[in-house]
Design goal:
The protein is mostly beta strands. The chain folds into four domains: 205 residues, no CATH class; 87 residues; 94 residues, Sandwich (Immunoglobulin-like), CATH 2.60.40; 76 residues, Immunoglobulin-like. Helix content is 0%, strand content 50%. It is built from no helices and 33 strands. The strands form seven sheets. Strands 8-9-3-2-1-18-17-14-15 form a nine-stranded antiparallel beta sheet, with no helix packed on it. The two termini are 56 Å apart.
Length: 506
């Protein structure tokens, strides 16, 4: 399953800087795992939280607090305040035990205490500044884990499987709306009633489901990228984006991954106007990371919206490649009395305008319908399903095909599917019979069955054989004059159908 990532930065409360000079919080990241609705009116958000801190012997404990954005209260009101010391007792509290009016943890969704002295690092079960404060999350979460890695001069912490439960507005799609959170993090040498604060990262925020990014990796030579950026916000705002090629570890790290597209923008987007960039070259299309040797690497699309969101959206285009504007996944045609149901799926779409449905009954193709794309702005990297029902009472064979049309009017065709005429009996139709040119078509009623087809002459000699047919029709060509037996076998059930066909002299 492909994951959406969200990076967040410090908002105005801390002016993007550390409030105490002994350490820095760097590169915080939120990786969204899942959003579920186990309880009506609530959403459970499962995500991984990671960040870096300068390696410093004084950072023995790290504290992380999370709130809904609407419930957040700053515990430092002066953004220039930096007089933290062992004589200051200004840590966030739950029951205001110290009398500093800092009981802001009552609405917290989570409080996590990391013990950096332990090897491996552990999550503590009590919060020293105020033991009444609940720790971890508001719901049972046995899968919560933490690891620490060395990243140059920093430690990188990865807290996995955080689950927080938040109330949402009524409605079936409430968990699909934009969900915003705000957090504080701080570090100290102790977990007691009055620990000195070494550094802080205050008021950082992130938003789930906004902005939304989709993208493709185009495995041409040189490699190219395609990206679509959309939002639910009505008021337009500017976005910028970067593109990285993964270094091979499948973990986004701007220090070690390869920046190939730098600071594109600004581009104005709103709910009605996404930004799309298709089949774009790298900044250096002749550079090593644009070459086919890197086609199996993931691409990372990093989008910033500095005037609107404090989060940075990150999207992974993994090892799958988008080499065609639209990739048909399946196409079937099934008759039910006077109706023919056409159904097709696309695995991906790029710059797609829609689909022209075409039918051939009397020897010539005609357009019978237009079906617009479901993809946002013509781009999608998920499976989309389309259907069209054709009123067709033709007594003979009908053929169908789908003509996909790009936004720039370029087009391509699907495979052809055939159906028997209304009232024609039998599960299998062979036509023309007799054949005057050595070519016959075979139509199967059920398009969901895999079949093997064998053609034998009247002496029992095998003339042609095709295995693993998944379409609902097949064409057999280059038959010499004579009579033939066509044996059709279902690979799943072993059921057999035998049809006779005659090929006349030409």
């Amino acid at each position: 399953m492909k994951k959406i990532f969200l990076l967040f930065t410090i908002v105005i409360l801390s002016h993007g800087r550390t409030l105490f000079a002994q350490c820095n919080f760097i590169s915080p990241t939120v990786e969204l795992n899942a959003i579920t609705t186990p309880v009506p009116g609530f959403c459970d958000i499962n995500f991984d939280l990671s960040f870096e801190i300068n390696i410093n012997g004084g950072n023995k404990y790290t504290f992380v607090h999370l709130w809904r954005a609407a419930d957040y209260t700053a515990w430092v009101t002066n953004p220039n305040y930096n007089a933290y010391s062992s004589t200051q007792n200004t840590q966030p509290e739950f029951n205001n035990s110290g009398g500093e009016n800092l009981n802001i943890l009552q609405n917290a969704l989570a409080t996590i205490i990391l013990n950096n002295d332990n090897t491996p690092i552990t999550i503590e079960s009590s919060y020293g500044p105020d033991p009444d404060a609940p720790v971890k999350t508001t719901i049972t979460n046995p899968g919560l884990t933490v690891v620490r890695q060395i990243a140059g001069a920093n430690y990188r912490y990865i807290i996995s499987n955080l689950i927080i439960r938040i109330p949402t507005p009524a409605g079936p799609n409430a968990c699909n709306s934009s969900l915003s959170f705000t957090g504080d993090a701080w570090s100290s040498q102790a977990n007691n009633a009055n620990p000195p604060i070494h550094c802080t990262m205050l008021g950082w925020s992130y938003t789930i489901n906004d902005v939304t990014i989709t993208g493709f990796k185009n495995c041409v030579n040189p490699l190219r990228y395609s990206i679509s950026i959309s939002t639910t916000q009505v008021t337009p705002f500017n976005v910028y984006y970067d593109v990285y090629v993964d270094n091979g570890d499948l973990v986004f790290n701007p220090a070690t991954d390869h920046l190939v597209v730098n600071d594109k923008g600004p581009f104005s987007i709103s709910s009605g106007t996404p930004h799309n960039a298709s089949f774009q070259s790298f900044d250096d299309p002749n550079g090593p990371y644009a070459q086919p040797a890197y086609k199996d690497r993931s691409f990372w699309y990093v989008v910033t919206a500095p005037t609107v969101f404090s989060n940075i959206a990150l999207y992974e285009a993994n090892n799958s490649c988008a080499t065609l504007p639209v990739e048909f996944k399946s196409f079937t045609a099934t008759r039910s009395r006077s109706n023919v149901l056409l159904k097709w799926e696309t695995a991906s779409e790029l710059n797609n305008s829609g689909f022209a449905v075409e039918r051939n009954v009397s020897g010539s193709w005609e357009k019978i319908a237009w079906v617009p794309t479901q993809a946002v702005n013509g781009n999608s990297d998920i499976t989309l399903t389309y259907t069209y029902t054709d009123l067709n009472n033709a007594k003979g064979i009908s053929q169908y095909r789908i003509r996909q049309v790009d936004i720039d009017a370029k087009s391509k065709y699907s495979d052809v599917r055939s159906v028997h005429g209304e009232g024609q009996l039998g599960k299998t139709i062979v036509y023309p019979n007799p054949s005057n040119d050595g070519k016959v078509n075979v139509i199967f009623e059920d398009a969901t069955v895999t079949r093997d087809v064998a053609v034998s002459d009247m002496n029992g000699r095998l003339v042609k054989q095709v295995k693993g047919i998944t379409n609902n029709n097949i064409t057999i060509e280059n038959l010499q004059p004579g009579m033939y037996m066509i044996r059709i076998v279902s690979t799943e059930t072993g059921e057999q159908v035998v049809e006779k066909v005659v090929v006349n002299k030409r």
